[in-house]
Every structure is written in structure tokens, then in C-alpha cells.
């Protein structure tokens, strides 16, 4: 049990100084554990602390107090450069607004994590091409983001997130900027990725998106309001 | 290995960014271009001046001492030296007899007068009276023909050796050797023509002179108060000792009591080189400081545009950080971009400067060329300006918070 735990959050708090004596407590003691190959959705209205939780899980931010173990390693007290390394090797991000580099083609966008990981150019190209093949964009590797549709851009982003074979895929409203048909296609892709053994954490406020997951964690006022396994709805085949 | 990849990625991003903002990049680098043109132009000018001077100074001979009434360069009180006795041509005999470290000595007197060959004439040739020893005592310059002999010199024959400029003016076509020219009305046979000296002091070197025997000079123009004695030192290494020896001989001739100052001067080329060296150092220093200011202005331009670039690309920085770029990677990326901007500016500046130097040297008939060290310095300076002015913006980019940067629209 313990061995397969990827994420272990214990009593995580996060507070922001808003100037003067005013303080905002975005998280008030969150404890969550996520095992390998789980498909988890984190839900909550805006202001619930959902985004802060995601930033901490994604190692973009550090908690004010509490323990965060990633693959059994304490990351809650790591410095910026150590966190950058964890983000590079262990976490694949998929954002609502895709966040691709506009001036670079799909291939270079996917190569980016490998560049920061120090992978040699020939190997880098091979892995990036393979990742793009996986998401069905093998024939569009030299297209720039503005030459691709929204769904294709998100596929490039997913390829980029997976190219370093991370421990978790962290997706923040991945269908938020897509029409429902394209959004469904992306959700099918997530399902396939999950079946291949990947761990997926999906942050959303859309109930029907969250229902793709096996487990839904609801966050409210900086605390975990509920954490339950759900019967997954069958994705449109 | 890892570092090399980061550098390569940095270069790709930098050129991508520069290409994406062509107009802005060109305007920004303009400051650097102007700065590099100014600095390299200045350095080339000083170097050219130095070389021209060095060449001219050679005309005075590195191993020739000039015994004269007054110093070439002095900050002594004029009233203390104005009443010095004249240098006499007779000293030459004493010097020849006693100076063991010197190999030749010749008296030199000069008068400006008109020289003619039929209709061709030169108004202000320096007619120089000297002895057969002059050629050796002035450093054995090349002569087409020959110098006059001891006999011709002692007997005051009407023979002469002319400088290159005189030859060009009086004999635009044909060989002057063997011809006769008129010096202040008297006919002189041309025995030889000196090789052209050129340089800053072309007028004062052999170029503009007509050498005639000392006796002939005195017969024609009377004796002169201004006599210079050229003394050739046998061994350049013994320059200082030869000078001391000569000083001793002259003090004895003049019966100067020990402890009393000399009432003559022994001048040498090094006096000029030293003085001129100080001059170029000061002018060059001031010039480089002033032109360097334009580079600082250029650097501030680069810093400004890099701040704009960093702010504009906050989102990109956020994405790169989320994907795993370390602070160092971001810092390097923006440093490379600033350095690349400056390097491009520096290269363009060098090319412009190179063309300018060619044009200027053609128009003014100077032998100016851009020395290799100026090119290397220009490249290093533009790189340094890039790194220095890019550092603050790059540092700001490197320490951005990834969460904030990702939120930036």
C-alpha cells in the first residue's frame, strides 16, 4: 500500500499575507493520499482553495505548513531548483489555455521538458516524435500552435506533459477552452492514458468532466469536504 | 553537456525573439552599432597616428644623435638657454677623433631657397650643407646614384644629392642623375636621388632637401649660426654610453666646469617618440572615454528593451518554469538574448567602421587599416555590454514566481 503511494499530503495549510495584518487562509489542513494509477478529480467552486491545492501538488508552490511526500520524498521543504527538477521529471502539466510556446512548432514544444532534463538532441527528437504520434499528431509535428485547432493544441500539450514519463499527469480544466465534442475526445485520450498505467489528477468545476474519474475529492473553504470513489461513467466510445 | 544544450536552446530562443521583433531589435542595436563604430574608429585612428609617427620618427634614425644648441622638447625656462653659444662645425673634427662609440659625424646647415631645372622649380627647398660623412651619419638611406665624396666635399664642388620630392618636382619625367639644377642661381650637378621617406614630416626629411657640400654652402651663403652635428652611434645598444661620451667631449671642448649645466643639447629620436607616446596616450584615453560613453548609452538601450522583453514574456517564463526550467536556465536564456543583440550590433558596427576606415584612408591618402586587436576588442566589448546590461532583466525573469507568471495575461 505505502509503496504505491505517489502523493501523500498531511495537514497542508497555505496562507497568504494580503498586506498589513490581513491574512488569507487558502488551505486549512488538507490531508490526501493518491496511489499509483488512480484517476482522481479535484472539484470545488472558485475561491475554494482548489487552485492552491493544485499548485502545491504540482510543486509550483510550497505549503505554509504540513508535510508533502512525493514518491516517498519530502518535497515540502525543497528549494526552487529542486522543485524545478521534480516538476520536470515527475509531473506533467495540462492547462486550460494549453500554454504552448507560440513561436515554436509542436515538436519543439514537446521537446522542451527533455531539453531541461538534458536529453541529447537525437534522442529528444525521437521521444518527442513518439509522444506526438501517441496523441495522433504524428503528421503535424512542424505546425506552430496558431496552425492547429484547439483540440490539437491540447493534444500537443498532453504529449509535452507525458514525454518525460512523469509519475502524475496534472490537468487543470483541460476541456475548459474546448467545445464539448473536442472536450469529449480529450477525455477519451485521458482514459487511454490512464489505462496505460498513468496516474491522473484532474482539476475541474464541471461535474460531468469529474465523472470520468474513479474518485472525486471536493474542496470547500480550504478543506476537503468529501473524498469518495465513484462508479465511472463510460466514456463515449 | 547539459550546459551546452541550455546554451543552444538559449541561442534558438534569442534568434527567434530577435526575428519576431525585427524593427525593435534594429532600433535597439543602433545604440550599440554607433558605440562600436565610435570606439573602433577612435582606436583605429590612434593606432594609425601611432604607426605614422613611428614611421616618421624612423627618418630621424634610431641610432643618430643630434648635437644642437637647443632641445627638441623642453620645459626649461627659455631665458636660461637662449644665450647659449652656437654649435661650431669644427667640433666635428674633435668628435671624429675622440668619440670611440660613434662611427660618423657630419655638420648640417640649412637654408630655404629656390631650386630650378629649366621651367620646373621648387620655391622652398631645404638646401642643406654637409660633408661626405652625412650619408653614414644619417643612417645610410638608399640613394639612386651616389653621395658626394670627401674630396668633392672638401673642395666645395658644385655637386648635389636631392630628395625624392625635389626630384619629382624638378624632373617630372626622366632621370635626374647626371643632370644639372640651379640652386640659388648656381649650377649643381645631381649625383644621386634619395629614396622617398614620406610620413608626417615629409617636409623636414630628405624628401624636400638638396644636399650640397658644406664648403660650397659656406662659399655661397656664408657661415650659419644654426649648425647641427649628426653623429652616428656605432652600436645601437651603446646609445646611452655614446651619448655620455659625446657629452664629455663637448663639455671639454666648451670648457664647462664640473657641476655646471650643459650649454648644448644632444637630441635623439627617442625624445620625440616618448613625447608623442604621452600625447597619444592622453588623447587616446580621453577619446576612448568619450566614445565609451556612447556604448554605455547603447547598453542602457539594451537593458531597457530586455526589461520590456521579460515583461512581455512573463507567461512564457511561467510555462518554462512549470515544465522544469531552473532559475539558471531562464537567466542564461535572457543573458544570451541580450548578448546576441549586442553581438549583432557589434558586428554591424565593425563592418560599418571597416568601410569608413577604408573610405577615409582612400580620401586622405593615409595608410590606415583596422588592426586585428580592435576587431577582437570590439567583439569582446559588445559581448560584455550585452551580458552586463542584460543581467538585471534576466535576473528579474529568473526569480519570477511560476504561479504568478503562469497567471499573467
Offer a quick outline of the entry:
The complex is a heterodimer of chains A (237) and B (409). Chain A has a domain at 38-51 and 79-229: Rossmann fold (3-Layer(aba) Sandwich). Chain A is globular and about 50 Å long.
What structural category characterises the helix and strand content of chain B? alpha+beta
Task: Report the total helices of chain B.
Answer: 14
* Biggest beta-sheet profile of chain A: 6 strands, mixed
**What class would the helix/strand composition of chain A place it in?**
alpha/beta
- Tally of distinct domains of chain B: 2
Order of helices and strands of chain B: HHEHHEEHEHEHEEEHEHEHHHHH
Overall radius of gyration of chain B? 32 Å
Poorly predicted runs of chain B are none
Q: What percent of residues of chain B adopt helix (DSSP H or I)?
A: 55-70%
**Global mean pLDDT of chain B:** 87
Gross morphology of chain B is elongated
Instruction: Tell me the distance between the termini of chain B.
Output: 35 Å
Strand neighbour order, sheet with most strands of chain B: 2-3-8-5-7-6
Strand order of the largest sheet of chain A: 6-7-8-3-9-10
CATH architectural arrangement of the domain at 38-51 and 79-229 in chain A: 3-Layer(aba) Sandwich
Form type of chain A = globular
Report on the structure:
- Helix content of chain A is 33%, strand content 28%.
- Chain A has 237 residues and is α/β, with parallel strands linked by helices.
- Chain A has a domain at 38-51 and 79-229: Rossmann fold.
- In chain A, helix 5 (150-162) runs parallel beside helix 6 (180-195).
- Chain A starts with a strand and ends in an 8-residue tail after the last strand.
- The mean pLDDT of chain A is 91.
- In chain B, strand 2 (102-117) and strand 3 (120-130) form a beta hairpin.
- With 409 residues, chain B is of the alpha+beta class.
- Chain B has 14 helices and ten strands.
- In chain B, helix 10 (269-312) packs parallel to helix 13.
- The chains are: A alpha/beta (237), B alpha+beta (409).
- The interface between A and B is medium-sized, with 28 and 25 residues.
Amino acid at each position: 500500500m505505502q509503496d504505491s503511494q505517489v502523493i501523500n499530503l498531511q495537514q497542508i495549510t497555505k496562507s497568504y499575507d494580503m498586506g498589513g495584518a490581513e491574512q488569507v487562509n487558502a488551505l486549512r489542513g488538507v490531508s490526501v493520499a493518491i496511489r499509483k494509477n488512480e484517476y482522481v478529480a479535484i472539484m470545488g467552486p472558485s475561491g475554494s482553495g482548489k487552485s492552491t491545492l493544485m499548485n502545491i501538488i504540482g510543486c509550483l508552490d510550497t505549503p505554509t505548513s504540513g508535510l508533502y511526500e512525493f514518491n516517498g520524498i519530502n518535497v515540502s521543504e525543497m528549494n526552487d531548483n529542486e522543485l524545478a527538477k521534480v516538476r520536470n521529471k515527475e509531473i506533467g502539466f495540462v492547462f486550460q489555455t494549453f500554454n504552448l510556446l507560440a513561436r515554436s512548432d509542436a515538436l519543439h514544444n514537446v521537446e522542451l521538458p527533455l531539453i531541461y532534463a538534458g536529453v541529447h538532441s537525437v534522442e529528444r527528437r525521437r521521444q518527442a516524435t513518439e509522444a506526438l504520434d501517441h496523441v495522433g499528431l504524428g503528421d503535424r509535428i512542424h505546425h506552430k500552435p496558431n496552425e492547429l485547432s484547439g483540440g490539437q493544441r491540447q493534444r500537443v500539450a498532453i504529449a509535452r506533459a507525458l514525454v518525460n514519463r512523469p509519475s502524475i499527469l496534472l490537468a487543470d480544466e483541460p476541456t475548459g477552452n474546448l467545445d464539448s465534442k473536442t472536450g469529449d475526445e480529450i477525455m477519451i485520450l485521458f482514459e487511454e492514458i490512464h489505462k496505460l498505467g498513468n496516474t491522473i489528477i484532474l482539476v475541474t468545476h464541471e461535474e460531468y468532466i469529474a465523472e470520468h474519474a474513479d474518485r472525486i475529492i471536493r474542496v470547500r473553504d480550504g478543506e476537503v469536504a468529501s473524498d469518495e470513489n465513484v462508479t465511472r461513467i463510460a466514456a463515449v466510445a | 553537456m547539459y550546459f551546452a544544450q541550455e546554451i543552444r536552446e538559449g541561442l534558438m530562443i534569442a534568434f527567434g525573439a530577435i526575428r519576431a521583433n525585427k524593427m525593435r531589435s534594429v532600433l535597439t542595436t543602433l545604440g550599440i552599432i554607433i558605440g562600436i563604430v565610435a570606439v573602433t574608429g577612435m582606436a583605429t585612428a590612434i593606432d594609425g597616428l601611432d604607426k605614422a609617427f613611428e614611421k616618421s620618427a624612423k627618418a630621424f634614425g634610431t641610432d643618430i644623435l643630434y648635437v644642437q644648441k637647443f632641445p627638441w622638447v623642453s620645459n626649461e625656462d627659455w631665458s636660461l638657454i637662449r644665450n647659449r653659444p652656437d654649435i661650431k662645425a669644427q667640433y666635428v673634427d674633435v668628435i671624429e677623433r675622440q668619440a670611440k662609440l660613434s662611427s660618423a659625424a657630419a655638420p648640417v646647415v640649412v637654408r630655404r631657397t629656390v631650386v630650378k631645372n629649366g621651367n620646373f622649380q621648387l620655391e622652398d627647398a631645404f638646401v642643406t650643407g654637409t660633408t661626405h660623412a652625412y650619408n653614414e651619419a644619417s643612417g645610410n638611406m638608399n640613394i639612386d646614384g651616389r653621395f658626394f665624396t670627401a674630396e668633392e666635399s672638401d673642395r666645395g664642388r658644385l655637386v648635389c644629392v636631392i630628395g625624392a620630392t625635389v626630384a619629382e618636382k624638378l624632373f617630372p619625367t626622366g632621370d635626374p642623375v647626371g643632370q644639372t639644377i640651379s640652386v640659388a642661381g648656381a649650377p649643381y650637378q645631381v649625383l644621386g636621388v634619395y629614396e622617398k621617406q614620406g610620413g608626417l614630416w615629409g617636409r623636414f626629411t630628405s624628401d624636400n632637401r638638396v644636399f650640397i657640400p658644406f664648403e660650397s654652402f659656406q662659399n655661397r651663403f656664408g657661415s650659419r649660426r644654426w649648425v647641427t652635428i649628426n653623429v652616428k652611434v656605432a652600436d645601437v645598444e651603446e646609445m646611452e654610453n655614446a651619448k655620455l661620451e659625446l657629452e664629455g667631449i663637448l663639455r671639454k671642448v666648451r670648457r664647462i666646469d664640473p657641476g655646471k649645466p650643459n650649454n648644448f643639447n644632444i637630441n635623439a629620436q627617442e625624445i620625440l617618440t616618448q613625447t608623442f607616446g604621452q600625447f597619444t596616450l592622453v588623447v587616446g584615453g580621453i577619446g576612448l572615454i568619450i566614445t565609451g560613453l556612447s556604448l554605455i548609452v547603447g547598453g542602457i538601450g539594451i537593458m531597457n528593451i530586455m526589461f520590456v522583453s521579460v515583461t512581455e514574456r512573463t507567461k512564457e517564463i511561467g510555462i518554462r518554469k512549470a515544465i522544469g526550467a531552473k532559475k539558471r536556465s531562464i537567466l542564461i536564456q535572457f543573458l544570451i538574448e541580450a548578448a546576441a543583440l549586442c553581438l549583432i550590433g557589434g558586428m554591424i558596427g565593425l563592418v560599418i567602421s571597416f568601410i569608413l576606415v577604408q573610405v577615409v584612408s582612400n580620401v586622405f591618402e593615409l595608410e590606415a587599416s583596422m588592426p586585428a586587436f580592435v576587431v577582437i576588442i570590439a567583439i569582446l566589448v559588445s559581448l560584455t555590454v550585452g551580458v552586463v546590461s542584460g543581467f538585471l532583466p534576466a535576473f528579474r525573469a529568473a526569480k519570477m514566481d511560476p504561479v504568478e507568471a503562469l497567471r499573467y495575461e
